[in-house]
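The records we work with from here on pair a chain with its fold. Taken together, the tokens spell out the fold as the letters spell out the chain. The record below shows the convention in full.
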Amino acid sequence: MQLLRFAALVALFCLSGMPAHAAGFTFLQVPADADGPALRGAVWYPCDAAAAAAASPAPLALGPLITLQVAKDCPIQSGKWPLIVISHGAGGSFLGHRDTAAALADAGFVVAAISHSGDNFEDMSRHRDLSVFISRPMDMKRLVDYLLRVWPERIAPAQIGFFGFSRGGYTGLVLAGAVPDFRSGLTWCEKNSTVPMCVQARRNELPVAPPVRDERIKAAVIADPLSFFNDAQVLKDVKIPIQLWASERGGDGVMPARVEAVRRGLPSPPDFRVPADSAHFAFLAPCSEAMAKVLPEICNDAGGFDRVAFHEKLNAEAIAFFRQQLR
């Protein structure tokens, strides 16, 4: 039944009437303001058909490890499109889910991702500090604010969704209304740990300001979230539809049992799925051969797990979910 369901989703995607050419792509920078520093990222979007036909998409090399097949700076198709914002995991970047972003753009969404301040591969200054769990949701709110301001004629403000992985999954749950319990969430801290967030929790030096909620987000795909949500009480205000993915084996601080606690605690049952034989990093975009040699710990999947095939399913399921919930 799962195979038939996936085949139907693929058929829906192929017959949707959306352009088959590469997604439009442009870099963005959210300016610094009173709520945080400048944020670098990119937007994938439906490319104007006439412009795409006039110029074939060219490979865009972003350093030695990543090459995108995109139509850089292609004019966006006319009309208003649903918006999906993407939040990466710890120490990641706006390119961590590039295949999902491109698939969504080809399916008729504007998709934007940024590298989180103080918690990305170039800047890890607050990676181990509890403050990053406050700034992450604010980063995403600022991203939505920016896009609605600069592309008001191309984005449907009532059709905004979210995709987040690991710490990005945490970020999405907070934006949807969850209230993190940092003390109970840091159960992995050793008694005398010197990790800043563990010290802060032990000394009860917890963030005073709660993370920001964004009611403009109407649906969310949450993949293997880092969880500070132990019971239904802290999740009771999550009212939007959730598609929740969990890896079978977890990893990088994410434990399957804690993701299961999120599933049980959500007030409305999520669209829940656990890919067989998967580990935490399976949700990252498939790696090039060059990247796999440099970063085997995040690129190589154990037990013959086929990340490319899995992402075809993940992307199709996410597209179907957002189409249903944001239409």
Q: What stands out?
A: The first strand starts at residue 24 and ends at 30.
